[in-house]
Amino acid sequence: MKLKVVSSLLALFLFLSLGVKAQSSIKLEKQQTRFFYGQLNLHGGYHQNQFGEYWDFSSVGPRSQLALQYFAKNRRILQKGYTRAFALASSKARFSLAFDKRRNDQGESEGSLYFQAVDLWMKFNTKWDRTTITIGQTAIPYGHNPSIDPIINFAPNLVSSDLGFSRDLGLFLKSPISQKMQLEFSFTSGGLLNQPLVTCENLVKNRVQHADPVVRFEDVEYRNTWLGFGRLGTQSYLKYEFGLIGGVGKINSKINSGTTADIWRGGADFSYKFEERFKFSSMITYGENSEINEIYKTVNTQQNVDILLWKRFVLRSSYSLLVQDQRLNKDANYAQVFANSIGYNISPHTKIRLNYYWEDFKRTEVNPTNVYIQFVTGIGKRP
Questions:
Q1: Is residue 123 part of a domain?
Q2: SS3 breakdown of the chain: % helix, strand, coil, rounded to 5?
Q3: Which residues partner with 304 through β-bridges?
Q4: Which of 5, 40, 191, 374 is spaced 20 to 30 A from 328 at the CA atom?
């Protein structure tokens, strides 16, 4: 009898001790709010273009690069769960050092390193539910393009092909207007930080010159450019997404170097998501560029399909078309890109992809074809 009582008391003591220890560990453990992450992207393979067939680093899609990212959350907001009026909720800084290897007009190899600010922003929560204000450099609300595997995405970016950039420096607002609808708006600088901050050129020896690295700090020149964009559409967590997009502004011209262009765009985007296994997205826009007493009409469209197989393999197919000319007819200048990819997720931080690109340009006789191997790996923690 005494042995039974002693055993019961020992069992009760152990249970209480473990309970106190567990509570102590819960109280002492703090939620992580600072995240450092480094990422390496290697991308290259087979090229076939007007210079013949050769093997080299990628000249389309993401360049081989090293990226460093810092992300921070406001611990007080996480603990409270709400914002009384207006408070900094999170911030992000992401910089990349990219290696650009290409052939010039004479067919000679050229190589450069570019140091650039990719993301550099602060996000503020407000007392209104899900209403945020972001200040800094981030993606403009030019349509939605959800992807199963967005990290260093290989697919062509319709926004960059159209405007020359997809991220901009300025003010961004996001707010719900009903249970299922939300409004996104941005007023930005028109591509001020689109160019690299530091450039290192002449890294490759060819038949004309020796490798003679030259480091240059780029002058960030502001030409009174600006850009306003907005999207009215469904919430991003819904199975079906639909949005109307529009924008107007003054940006640096892609056609006439050293000049600016007054632009406007209007269009729509649609996407369908089935869990994390299948995603389809489509976007189409129309607009005009007015520059040097000439008006260029432009039509852009892009369709993407993502499929996840066996939790490891990701298949993606993408088609984009950019038509830009003074007249939209059968002789209009266009550029279209068809891209396919099959990827394997080795781990949450490491991926390998086989990417295929086929490009078609109106005024070229050769359609460039590229088959690349892409390896992406990272170290650290992401939010």
A1: yes
A2: 10, 55, 35
A3: 281, 318
A4: 191
From 16-25, 53-62, 152-161, the region with the lowest mean pLDDT: 16-25
Enter the DSSP assignment of 268: E
Specify if 136 maps to a domain. Answer: yes
**What does the DSSP 8-state code read for residue 285?**
E
**Which residues fall within 8 angstroms of residue 23, CB to CB, at 6 or more apart?**
none
pLDDT value at position 207?
Answer: 67
Structure tokens at 327: 């007249």
Q: What is the pLDDT of residues 108-117, one digit of tens each?
A: 777 889 999 9
Among 205, 211, 202, smallest CA distance to 112 is for 202
Identify how many contiguous H helices and E strands the chain contains and give both numbers: 3, 19
Residue 8 lies in a domain: no
**381 three-class SS:** coil
Does some domain include residue 24? no
Residue 93 — φ and ψ, nearest 5°? -135, 120
Its domain, for residue 194, covers: 32-380
State the CATH number of the domain containing residue 319: 2.40.160.10
Other beta carbons within 10 Å of 158: 26
Lowest mean pLDDT among 8-17, 50-59, 75-84: 8-17
DSSP 259-313: -EEEEEEEEEEEEEEETTTEEEEEEEEEEEEEETTEEEEEEEEEEEEEEEETTTE
**CA–CA dist 64, 374 (Å, integer):** 9
Q: Is the pLDDT at 23 greater than 60, yes or no?
A: no
Percent of the chain at pLDDT > 90 equals: 45
Domain total for the chain?
1
